[in-house]
Design goal:
There is one protein chain. Helix content is 74%, strand content 0%. By secondary structure, the protein is mostly helical. It starts with 8 loop residues before the first helix and ends with a helix.
């Protein structure tokens, strides 16, 4: 009779960690589903669970179908997508720079993308006239240029990119981009000014299926690519010298991963406005829940980011009905204290 080979303690611990991580991912998915159901029924006009079910099955009234399929579902789907995109973008930046405070909003990547989107919109007679499928491309150009500028200013020969120098450079560049956006608003007519003010506050302004279609390819392509590179990110976290000794092409991998992170952040900003802190809070909570290994941490970050933005948007639509609070403000109420806590812990 053959004996089953004994499992080492380390292997048993890894298996327990994997099982626990998968259970946490399942719980996060269930929480997103619960908030999804609540969000669908949040608004000035309410749908009972039975009406919601009938409408989803195609047996609702024209008014119910208009509310659900034209107004609420696209916004909910966009909230889920941009939450995942921003959180994974932040996770990649924290991994590549080995800096717990790296975030596309704090480092100015979102501001660079937003500046280009605002430039595009300002040249059209109405904000809604700007070509939807062109917005992510324009945002990516602005975000990439900003990332290159931050990298060039923060890099020091023989030292790489020190954490505090990266943070301060990003904050300074973000402030400059924000100032440029404020100057641009001076030439806008009142209608466009109102739109820009709402956008800067982090309102999810792309609320139709065409915005979902413009964002979806970026998420569907770049997010799986980043998850595929999870093992590479684990190696990069060991430091440049160790990663090079293990055979990793450090500079090439960093460039590719940063490109993916910038693309995710830019595409999300193009349809969501200036929502910050998602790329900071999501990865940190994921790391606490499932550990630092990117195979589980990246999916957990995506789910936590989606949950955070969807919850923030739902609260913003519910708390002052029929008016609403931009999701970016609700996220900032959560993210700003957490950022200060991380900054104080880093300094200590």
């Amino acid at each position: 009779m053959r004996k089953t080979p004994a499992i080492s303690f380390d292997e048993a611990r890894r298996r327990r960690g994997r099982r626990r991580g998968i259970q946490i991912l399942a719980v996060l998915s269930a929480m997103i589903a619960a908030v999804f159901i609540i969000s669908v029924n949040t608004g000035y006009i309410r749908l009972t669970p039975l009406e919601l079910l009938h409408t989803l099955l195609g047996r609702g009234t024209d008014k119910q179908e208009l509310i659900l399929f034209d107004f609420r579902l696209p916004r909910i789907v966009i909230s889920i997508l941009i939450g995942a995109g921003l959180a994974v973008s932040g996770a990649v930046m924290q991994g590549v720079f080995r800096n717990d405070l790296a975030d596309p909003g704090i480092l100015g990547i979102n501001a660079g993308a937003g500046l280009m989107v605002m430039l595009l919109i300002s040249f059209y007679p109405a904000a809604s006239a700007a070509p939807v499928f062109m917005l992510p491309l324009v945002a990516f150009a602005g975000a990439a240029a900003t990332a290159a500028l931050i990298y060039a200013l923060a890099y020091k020969r023989h030292e790489g990119i020190p954490s505090i120098r990266l943070l301060l450079t990003g904050v300074a560049v973000a402030a400059g981009m924000s100032a440029a956006m404020i100057v641009l608003t001076l030439r806008l007519d009142p209608d466009k000014y109102q739109f820009v003010a709402t956008w800067l506050a982090g309102s999810i302004w792309g609320t139709s299926w065409k915005f979902v279609l413009s964002l979806l390819p970026w998420i569907v392509i770049l997010l799986p690519y980043v998850v595929y590179k999870a093992r590479v990110m684990n190696v990069l976290n060991l430091g440049e010298q160790t990663a090079t000794g293990l055979g990793a092409a450090v500079n090439r991998e960093q460039f590719r991963l940063l490109g993916a992170a910038v693309g995710l952040a830019a595409a999300s900003v193009a349809v969501s406005g200036g929502i910050g802190f998602v790329g900071l809070v999501g990865p940190h909570l994921a790391r606490r829940l499932v550990g630092p290994k990117h195979q589980l941490m990246l999916p957990a970050s995506a789910l936590l980011g989606s949950l955070l933005v969807l919850t923030a948007d739902t609260i913003g639509r519910w708390i002052l009905q029929p008016s609403e609070i931009p999701a970016g403000i609700v996220v900032a109420v959560i993210g700003a204290p957490y950022f200060l806590y991380l900054l104080a812990r880093t300094r200590s």
